[in-house]
Amino acid sequence: MTTSFDVQAQSLMDQMAAAYRAGDAAGCAALFTADATLFSPYASATHGRDAIEELHRDWTRPANSKRMTVIEAGRSGDLGWCLAAYSEGEVAGSGTSLCTLVRQTDGSWLIHHCSLNSDVPPLGSD
Question: What class is the 4-117 domain?
Answer without folding.
Answer: alpha beta
